[in-house]
Design a protein that fits this description.
The chain has helices spanning 11-20, 40-50, 59-72, 128-133, 147-151, 173-199, 202-215, 260-267, 286-294, 303-312, 319-324, and strands at 4-7, 22-26, 78-83, 88-100, 111-122, 140-142, 219-222, 233-236, 246-252, 257-258, 274-280, 283-284, 298-301. It is of the alpha/beta class.
C-alpha cells in the first residue's frame, strides 16, 4: 500500500521546489543531515547543539520531523504539498534519498529529497475535511483518513470515495469549516490566557484589567499592593470619580475556579452607589454564579469572557500589551 505524506514548506521556496523537483526542510545549522544516525536521541542532541536557543518542548517534535524525513520516507512514497502562494494541492512521488545542497544562495533550505511532481490541483477539487487533514500544524505527517482522495488524482487504479458511502463518508464542508473556526477561536483564547498568566504578575494583571476598563470608556486606578480589602481596581464613569456607579474590582490571575466566599468578600466592601466586578482567567463555582444572579450589582467575568473583551478592544490596547500578546486579524467561516 502506498504511503502518503503531508508536508509543509516555507513559501519562499515553494515555487522553486515545484519547478526543480524537490521537497526541503532546511536545517542549515545542522549541515548535512543525511549523516545523522537512525536514533531519535542522537538527533535531539544534534538539534540542541546547533540551536541552543530552542525551547525544550519543541525539540522532540522537531527531532521527529527530521527522523521521518531521513529514515521513514522511502523512495516511491507519495507526498502532498499544499502551496499557499498559488493555492494548489501538489502531489508527487519521492525519487531520491536525502541530499545536501551547498550554500549557493539557497542554503537556508539545503536538505532535500528529489520529487517527481505528478500534478497540481485546485483546493476546490477536495472536500474541506481532506484540506483540513493536510493543514496539520506539523511540518511532516502521515495522511491517513483521506489518502484515497489524493492518490486518486495521480493513480487511475485508485478510486476516490463515493459521496454518501457509509464506509468512507466524511463531514460536509460546512461542518468541517465550523469545526476549524471553533478550533481557531479556542486556540486564540488559550494563547491569550497563557500569555496573561505566564507573563504578568498578580499586580501587573490588575493594571491590565484597569487598562481594559479604560479601553471600555471608564476611568480606572489600581489600589495599593496591600491593605486594599480585596479591592484591586476602582473604576468609574466620570474623570474625578464622584458620580455613581463606582465599580470595585477584584482581579485573580488564577486559571482555576473561584468560589462563592471570595465573591462574597468583595460584596462586603460595597457602599451606597457601588457595584462589584470580579475578574479571573478561570471559572466560577455554581454557588458563585447563583450569587451573581441574585445580586444585581455583582458581575463575574471568567477567562472566556475576559478574552472576548481583550479581542474586542485589541486595537485600543497600548503598544506594550499588543507586543506581549501579538495577534493578527483573520476571517474564518461563520457556520
Amino acid at each position: 500500500m502506498t504511503t502518503l505524506w503531508g508536508l509543509h514548506m516555507q513559501e519562499e521556496i515553494g515555487s522553486d521546489a515545484l519547478e526543480r523537483g524537490y521537497v526541503a526542510i532546511g536545517w542549515a545549522g545542522l549541515g548535512d543531515v543525511s549523516a545523522l544516525p537512525k536514533d531519535r536521541e542522537a538527533i535531539k542532541a544534534a538539534i540542541i547543539r546547533a540551536y541552543p536557543e530552542k525551547k525544550a518542548g519543541a525539540i522532540p517534535v522537531e527531532a521527529g520531523v527530521l527522523f521521518r524525513f531521513l529514515h521513514e520516507i522511502k523512495e516511491g512514497d507519495v507526498v502532498v504539498y499544499p502551496s499557499k502562494h498559488n493555492r494548489q494541492v501538489n502531489i508527487g512521488r519521492v525519487i531520491g534519498p536525502v541530499t545536501h545542497i551547498a550554500d549557493t544562495g539557497e542554503g537556508t533550505y539545503p536538505n532535500r529529497r528529489a520529487v517527481d511532481w505528478l500534478g497540481s490541483f485546485p483546493r476546490s477539487d477536495f472536500p474541506q475535511s481532506a484540506l483540513y487533514e493536510i493543514g496539520s500544524f506539523l511540518t511532516l505527517f502521515l495522511v491517513k483518513t483521506h489518502r484515497q482522495e489524493f492518490l486518486a488524482k495521480i493513480d487511475p487504479s485508485v478510486s476516490a470515495p463515493e459521496a454518501g458511502d457509509e464506509d468512507t463518508a466524511t463531514p460536509d464542508d460546512d461542518s468541517v469549516a465550523g469545526t476549524v473556526s471553533r478550533q481557531a477561536e479556542e486556540t486564540t483564547e488559550d494563547y491569550v490566557v497563557r500569555k496573561l498568566h505566564s507573563v504578568l504578575s498578580g499586580y501587573e494583571f490588575e493594571h491590565f484589567v484597569a487598562h481594559i476598563l479604560e479601553c471600555l470608556g471608564y476611568t480606572a486606578r489600581v489600589s495599593e499592593k496591600s491593605g486594599d480589602g480585596g479591592v484591586d481596581v476602582i473604576a468609574h464613569s466620570d474623570e474625578l470619580g464622584f458620580e455613581p456607579p463606582i465599580i470595585k474590582v477584584q482581579c485573580k490571575r488564577m486559571t482555576g475556579q473561584t468560589g462563592e466566599p471570595e465573591v462574597s468578600q468583595l460584596l462586603g466592601t460595597l457602599g451606597e452607589g457601588e457595584c462589584a466586578l470580579f475578574v479571573n482567567l478561570g471559572s466560577y463555582s455554581r454557588p458563585a454564579r447563583v450569587l451573581e444572579r441574585n445580586r444585581p450589582k455583582l458581575r463575574l467575568i471568567d477567562g472566556e469572557q475576559f478574552v472576548k473583551l481583550v479581542l474586542e478592544n485589541y486595537d485600543k490596547l497600548s503598544a506594550r500589551y499588543r507586543t506581549m500578546i501579538p495577534l493578527k486579524r483573520i476571517h474564518v467561516p461563520d457556520v
